[in-house]
Amino acid sequence: MPKEVFEQAAAAVLNYNNSGLSILEIGHRTTTFQAVMDEARALVKELMQLDDNKEVLFLHGGASTQFMQVPMNLLDDKETAAYADTGVWGIKAIKEAKLFGKVEVVCTGKDSNYNFIPKDFAVPNDAKYFHITTNNTIYGSQWQKIPKTSVPLVGDMSSDVFSRVIDFNAFDLIYAGAQKNMGPAGVNLVVVNNKILGKVKRQIPTMMDYRNHVSEGSMLNTPPVFAIFVCMLTLRWLKASGGVAAIEKLNCEKAALLYNEIDINPLFKGTVATEDRSKMNICFVMHNPELESAFLAAIKQNNIIGIKGHRLVGGFRASLYNALPIRSVQVLVDTMQSFAKTQA
Ligand SMILES: Cc1ncc(COP(=O)(O)O)c(C=O)c1O
Question: What burial class does residue 150 get, using C-beta atoms within 10 Å of its C-beta: 0-12 exposed, 13-18 middle, 19+ buried?
Fold first, then answer.
């Protein structure tokens, strides 16, 4: 997250807007917090350029809760939902959907350890919705083109929301855990088209029914006040930085810098099909895996942290979320170059 957001959040914990109160102790029904909620929701609408029929909600629970909340609201037990299986998070979403109705997995990258985004598939016209994971955090693949379907499109954007300009209105439901590009853990962004709600026959528990959150302006119960406040600050920062188009330009520069090094450095190789490479999570391995621990030691020496790859892929994963400055990517590239020299 941006340093200025940390500073503003820290100051607000001590004394919010010179009120003498902490942001952590003001009531959520006060006009003070209502203003925070209103601004956060309005910023999402503005930054995503959402149509009027889209509702913006900040809900508890992490993206994993959405794996079940989506089918609970959209899928009856005899109906079918279509899912793309592009890795772990998609699989978890599929598992939950099966609790509520039928699931047709219309494409999968399983046989090649999810190193590409499937292109050749058909979504049945009678599916209630089609679910994709727009960016696959663990494998480092990303849908570069959002698929066109005749059925409502649902997107898990947890790891690339607000990182690039896409037609957000092409989705009838978007969800994203805040903790990558938007704010701290503890809150989900949900953007939903009102028109797809209220069509299932089952009774939905009050807190799980999106319609209740819509009608209460995302304030059905006590919302995760601090997490929403920090999301608002981050969205303000994004707007002041030029919005999604401007951050996309920087994200492209950061990703190009690192992918270029991966491609020309004789020690490393990327793990994902070039055209499907993620600009958020960059996965790479070494041609000679025996060198990995020495490279990790070099990385540590240069104060680079958190780039060990997920155990399902191995190697390395550099996450270049919105707030990461390009100079941090340059430090990694420099380390890769100087390590290659020691091996020459
Ligand atoms: C694409 C994607 N979906 C879902 C999740 C799960 O999010 P949470 O831990 O907020 O439930 C993650 C977490 O990294 C993710 O990357």
Answer: exposed
Report how far ligand 1's centroid is from the alpha carbon of 64 (Å): 6
- Catalytic site residue 126? no
pTM over 0.90: yes
Q: Is 180 one of the catalytic residues?
A: yes
Contacts of 341 (CB under 8 A, 6+ apart): none
Would you place residue 107 in the very low, low, confident or very high pLDDT band (cuts 50, 70, 90)?
very high
Place of tokens 């693949």: 141
Would the pLDDT of 84 be above 90? yes
pLDDT mean across residues, the chain: 97
User: Using a 6 Å CB cutoff, which residues line ligand 1?
Assistant: 62-64, 89, 133, 137, 156, 158-159, 177
- 160 given a catalytic annotation: no
User: How many degrees, rounded to 5, is the angle at CA 181 between CA 109 and CA 326?
Assistant: 95
How far, in Å, CA of 11 to CA of 289, rounded? 46
Total Cβ atoms within 10 A of residue 76: 15
CA of 280 to the centre of ligand 1 (A): 14
Average pLDDT over residues 111-127: 96
Question: If we measure between CA atoms, which residue out of 255, 253, 289, 254 comes closest to residue 269?
Answer: 289
pLDDT in tens, 139-167: 999 999 999 999 999 999 999 999 999 99
Position 331 scores a pLDDT of 97
* pLDDT given for residue 344 in this prediction: 80
CB 86 within 8 A of CB 109: yes
Amino acid at 282: I
Pocket test for ligand 1, best of 158, 159, 160, 190 (most atoms within 8 A of CB): 158
Given the residues 89, 143, 172, 276, the one annotated as active site: 89
